Predict the 3D structure of the following.
Amino acid sequence: MKTIEGAPTQAAIGDGWVDSGRTFDVRSPFSGKVLASVVDCGEKEARLAADAAVAAFGGWKRTTAYERSAVLRKWFELIMARQDQLARLMALEMGKPVAEARGEVRYAAAFVELYAEEAKRVSGETFPSQFANKRLFAIKQPVGPVYAVTPWNFPAAMVTRKAAPALAAGCTMIVKPAEQSPLTAIALAALWREAGGPPAALQVLPCADPVPVSRILIDDDRIRKVTFTGSTEVGIKLYGQVSHTVKRLSLELGGHAPFLVFEDADLDLAVREVVAAKYRNAGQTCVCANRIYVHHRIADQFVERLGAAAAALVVGDPLDEQVQIGPLVDRDVFGKVEAHVTDAVAKGARLVTGGKALGGTLYAPTVLAGVGSGMRLMSEETFGPVAPVRTFRDEAEAIGEANATQFGLAAYLWTNDLSRAVRVSESLDYGIIGVNDGVPSAPQAPFGGVKHSGLGREGGHWGIDEYLDVKYLSVRIQSS
Ligand code: NAD
């Protein structure tokens, strides 16, 4: 079997590693070189995987929670043991700096560890009847085989955040990873098998074109849930498609996070956390601060410090341990970043630092001041290392601007005033609020958005409920 950094290049279907007779190239976004020719799945492979997922569900759902927990625990340990290899793989296939990629592997593994524990905590309810001879119960059961579609920006964590709760609940899952970064998902499936998991309980179908595979699996009535992380545009399409078979659906979609800095904020801390929230993964995360609103009295100081911090970030080869900003994943993402900066500067924004290409798809960490509401980057997700700063005069204006978007994933606010922190948090139409915290994500917390940012929650006990149906039992008994 061909492998790269321990990852097979074939599809994980049924009990085997499968060739389709076709391949597609995965390239390093840094060097442009072909890393691997990966098996390209289509309709035939999707049908095979659906049959295998349905067959495996029959056995997996009957295992005890303790048995499932033990396999998940072993999977967690193997992921942790291979963290360097997985981090290198991510750095190679999608350009995440290797030091940051190691952090993602630990974050990804933490979902597996958590759901190894949560498997044992799925419990039902008993509730009273109005009749003396009836007993009423609600039990929870796995929804069935699941189809998962994941993005390239977190090639490990977006797989485990879905697969771990699904497998813990007793579901089986077919993952279709993004075409830019399929190798990490395949490597995770290989570790699942090594951990003793039934191979067909977690299958991975790499493909160059997501549409044919998705069509087969979405139209298959036996697949009872779709879970998707990616852009709002694609999420809306899938929302329509799943309606024909009335599947359960979770959507983790785009964000456009506002970051509010009030006049009483600790400025050094706020700058440090904007850097963490904005520039990690070169700005390619759904919870990245996308619009920074600073109280007008502290704006100049803030911009100066943020500019210095951004300019000090090390940009370059993602395999270099010192590098903090790697390449953008492809020319499309790079093109949008350039277009957003060009548009903002043409409309009067001041370039504080950055604003230039550094070769290939490397883009300099950028800070823009004097940003106006009519600029593209204030209404669209940039998905790059660009921090636009705009000023506000009071709390009401800040909240109004922050909420003036169709997105509602993450928002951040900086203040030392407790009442304001609570008041503003309650007024922001977002699923996740970081109060003096630029990196709020945690496996045990509910992650997800409102409005066009999605449906459902991943993480914590909320995450496993997405893979469970509630069944009501009314039991008539003989009165003694
Ligand atoms: P994308 O929507 O283009 O692709 C995501 C996945 O969907 C990929 O696997 C892709 O192959 C697949 N896909 C694309 N078109 C499809 C179709 N017609 N049918 C079925 N599948 C299809 O998004 P992307 O560019 O890979 O990822 C970036 C987006 O993901 C950003 O908008 C980001 O905010 C979002 N995201 C959200 C979260 C979250 O948890 N809310 C996390 C990470 C990324």
About this structure: The chain has a mean pLDDT of 97. The longest strand covers residues 134-142.
